[in-house]
Specification:
This protein has 279 residues and is an alpha/beta fold. Helices cover 47% and strands 19% of the residues. The chain has ten helices and ten strands. An eight-stranded mixed barrel has the order 1-2-4-5-6-7-8-9, surrounded by five helices. Helix 3 packs parallel to helix 5 and helix 5 runs parallel beside helix 6. Bound molecules: ligand C2E and calcium ion (3 copies). This is PAS domain S-box-containing protein/diguanylate cyclase (GGDEF) domain-containing protein.
Length: 279
């Protein structure tokens, strides 16, 4: 076949147009989804590895589109961030999680703290501490019952405003968790500048644990560092018994993963709490 840059360029442009159209289309649908109530929070248990008991819940956003069906967060969260829709969506997540927590308590269920994910764009849009304070007041929730999970990538552009916000949240008593630890940008230095209460070891390390000493060394050092800054360590992506044994051998006491439970709808979560489910 002959190399023809003109054709390649046309194809490229067409593909790009197609992609842009799809992105715009999906973003419009997402904006509608928020208003139409198509967004839902699922909950996944965080477990005390020794006893198998639920110690906390991570809220994970789900979009169920009436025609397209289930659209994964890995697809729509980036669009929400690009379009700044993550602002109102993040507000909704905060309120919904607090509302659910309040409802579980009012129903007399043995509630656990709840973690929500907050993206950098939300901090850039502003007022995160004020919004959190307001939500805690509105639903009468103690600050230590709420954990904000912030991905490590936030430190790629750590502005002064972000630092102030994280300090304000810490001072308020809300727990801060460093998510996806060990991926991408190294934030070891930043651990000293912020007061994180929890470090989540990314599942990419957990799933390689049986394959070599490097991932083991990483997990081990995270546990040592966490102890030094007085933070909890949570292992993500525990799917196999062997992975649980491995992280425990390295000193990890808390974990989360499909072995225990996939993220479940709120009604199912209530049942797990009511049953005081343990694994
Ligand atoms: P994340 O915060 O790292 O959440 C953990 C992801 O790992 C979830 O994917 C969860 O379903 C999945 N997971 C849990 N246990 C296992 C396991 O044992 N094996 C495997 N392979 N995966 C497991 P999910 O729900 O698709 O969410 C993907 C990402 O989307 C989240 O990653 C988070 O970055 C983002 N996200 C989800 N909800 C929100 C939200 O409300 N706000 C923001 N800003 N981001 C969110
Ligand atoms: Ca998370
Ligand atoms: Ca703190
Ligand atoms: Ca994670």
């Amino acid at each position: 076949s002959q190399h023809n840059p003109a054709v390649t360029w046309t194809q490229y442009t067409k593909a790009l147009e197609q992609q842009t159209r799809e992105t715009v289309d999906l973003t419009t649908k997402l904006r509608h989804a928020l208003e139409a109530g198509q967004l839902e929070l699922y909950y996944q248990p965080q477990v005390d590895l020794a006893s198998g008991r639920i110690i906390s819940a991570e809220a994970l956003l789900r979009w169920n589109h009436p025609q397209a069906g289930f659209i994964p967060p890995g697809r729509f969260i980036p669009l929400a961030e690009q379009s700044q829709l993550i602002g109102p969506i993040g507000d909704w997540v905060l309120h919904q999680a607090c509302r659910d927590l309040r409802a579980w308590r009012d129903a007399g269920l043995p509630v656990t703290p709840v973690s929500i994910n907050v993206s950098l764009i939300q901090f850039e849009l502003g007022s995160v501490p004020d919004k959190v304070r307001q939500a805690l007041t509105d639903y009468n929730i103690a600050p230590e019952e709420l954990t904000l999970e912030i991905t490590e990538s936030i430190f790629e552009q750590p502005g002064q405003a972000l630092k102030q916000d994280l300090e304000a949240l810490s001072a308020m008593g809300v727990r801060l968790s460093l998510d996806d630890f060990g991926t991408g940008y190294s934030s070891l230095g930043h651990l000293n500048d912020y007061s994180f209460d929890e470090i989540k070891i990314d599942k990419s390390f957990v799933c390689q644990l049986n394959k070599g000493r490097y991932p083991q060394a990483i997990v081990k050092s995270v546990i040592v560092i966490a102890a030094a800054i007085d933070a909890d360590v949570v292992a993500e992506g525990l799917e196999l018994e062997s992975q649980i044994t491995a992280v425990q051998a390295l000193g990890c006491t808390k974990g989360q993963g499909y072995h225990y439970s996939r993220p479940v709808p709120e009604a199912v979560w209530r049942q797990l709490l009511a049953d005081q489910k343990s694994w």
